[in-house]
Amino acid sequence: MLPLLLLAASLLTSQHASTECVDNGADHAATETQAARGPSGASAVLKVSTEDDHSKNSHTCNAEYQLIVTPASGGAPVVVDLLTADDDYGRTLSLRLDGFSRDGKRILGIFSESSRRTTTFLFDYDMTNGNVQLVDLKMRFAGMMPSSCSSSFGVTGTTEAGAIILELNSDKPCGAVRRWMLDRATGKPQRIAQSVTVVGLYEFKSGIQ
To answer: DSSP letters along the chain, please?
Structure first.
């Protein structure tokens, strides 16, 4: 029962934001999530900045995704460049900052783009060494779900060994399995064994240290 309770709690902490790449005459625009807090007092926001790509041969929108981490000490924020994407105007850019792992060592979330093509990336930022891992979820789950499946993903926790637990959210059924485990080394989706314990993400509670 405890793993399920931790899972439910983690779903409440994710921060969301979305915008569209629109040509409104401005040179630059940006959108970011609300801050997520970690157990050490560090905080993070997920941000996307957009602008015209200024190419002479195209008129497309450049989107730059960044994770901005503010240390608990209040020092200068660390800016982590996740991905830069150049594609059509009018596409929807969605941000989901799921939060910190329970031990405070990792920050996890998802960003996606929707237009003629849909892309969805999971990011896993390691606070201890500054490394970031990107997983192309659309590619990883290709062929595992019906082509008509319109779904979104959320990080709900990790295993004790560090594998990421994803939950699939969809208005229509996209298969019998809604929760998946991603191998930390390869990013390959796997079914979750009954023996696996899921540790929910850290949940910040105001006034509690």
So the answer is: -HHHHHHHHHHTS-EEEEEE----S-S-EEEEPPPEE-TTS-EEEEEEEEEE---SS---EEEEEEEEEE-TT--PPEEEEEEEEEE-TT-EEEEEEEEE-TTSSEEEEEEEEESSSEEEEEEEEETTT--EEEEEHHHHTTTTS-TT--EEEEEEEEETT-PEEEEEEESS---S--EEEE-TTT--EEPPPTTPPEEEPP---TT--
User: Residue type for 30, please?
Assistant: A
Tokens of 68: 């901005």
Provide the residue type at 139 as one letter.
M
Cα separation, 118 vs 64, whole angstroms: 16
pLDDT of residue 4: 35
Task: Dig out the tokens for 183 from the structure.
Answer: 């191998």
Strands 198-200 and 179-182: unpaired
Choose among 132, 138, 133: nearest CA to 112: 138
Q: What local confidence, expressed as pLDDT, does residue 150 receive?
A: 63
State which residues of the chain have pLDDT below 50.
1-12, 208-209
